[in-house]
Q: What sequence folds into this?
């Protein structure tokens, strides 16, 4: 395993998503892996850490998640901009070899054998918290994070270090179509009196 | 009204949140206004536009939303970094004059008279879509966007223009404590074959 990929304590896992990056969603069922992009993913709770992600009914990845009850949310870097756009716009239903065609490399970091996308900065392995009403009416899925990992080039000691890592490590934030913004400069608020 | 604040067509409203900014949440009930910060807000649907936001049970703003069924989600700019941090860490329950103490200026943009925070780049007025199970178990609230506005210094013709606006217009993305990142540089993916 890549020595730069370190486990993240679960009580810090929310920090991997709080700044609002676009993510990749991966899943596995019955011998099939798939990966999609999702701009609408969000932290939901600290401990145990939970998150939400919106998964359209047309996606094959959603079907794998519904069948297996597991998925991985991962944070692509600027280096994966094109890959992120392509896994988000091409479907395995039309291209059975989509992952190879796009050039997705999968790792197996956890004991579960779930597919993790190589080259990301962080990975959150999740157990689906079944909420059929949310899933059916809103396409809204809730996951409980059971393991988290990050690349220490850019996330160390519980903190993002975008300012010291190279620009290729920046998270990417989708707007529409092929348009994204990279995350930018660090800003610090003064602590208020009661902190 | 500020001539730079323009209505945003509802079918473009999702673009105001898709890049994952930290937001301010404002609400009004029975003569009381309040404003809080929320890093965990996310687009949920395109048409009609919907969004999710996580609101802790300890917040006074949540109580106003539960009572009135209405709220505004707005996107603070880098200029409002300190204000965002302070409305997120100080409570009206302890400081009844919190908004004045922090220096929050409120506008009334919509016909509803709801409080909008001045100096933001975008505003989404929402009707609460009641989902008592989500609200109670997950602190998760769903809003349907009924009106949207943006400042044309930084959002024009349905697009964010962070790259041409001054740095004070950048959205801010919370990590933890007083630590944020501003949104950064624009990046474009090549269109894939079927686009």
A:
């Amino acid at each position: 395993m890549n020595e730069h990929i370190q486990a993240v304590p679960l009580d810090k896992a929310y920090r991997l998503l709080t700044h609002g990056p676009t993510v990749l969603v991966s899943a596995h069922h019955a011998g099939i892996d798939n990966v999609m992009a999702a701009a609408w993913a969000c932290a939901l709770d600290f401990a145990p850490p939970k998150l939400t992600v919106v998964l359209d009914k047309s996606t094959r990845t959603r079907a794998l998640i519904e069948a297996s009850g597991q998925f991985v949310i991962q944070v692509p870097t600027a280096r994966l901009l094109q890959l992120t756009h392509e896994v988000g716009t091409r479907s395995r239903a039309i291209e059975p070899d989509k992952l190879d065609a796009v050039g997705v490399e999968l790792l197996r970091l956890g004991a579960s054998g779930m597919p993790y996308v190589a080259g990301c900065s962080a990975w959150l392995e999740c157990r689906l918290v079944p909420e059929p009403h949310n899933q059916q009416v809103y396409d809204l899925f809730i996951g409980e994070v059971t393991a988290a990992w990050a690349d220490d080039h850019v996330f160390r000691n519980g903190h993002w270090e975008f300012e010291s890592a190279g620009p290729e490590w920046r998270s990417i934030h989708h707007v529409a179509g092929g348009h994204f913004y990279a995350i930018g400069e660090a800003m610090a608020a003064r602590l208020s009196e009661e902190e």
Remarks:
- The helical segments of chain A are 60-68, 81-89, 98-102, 132-138.
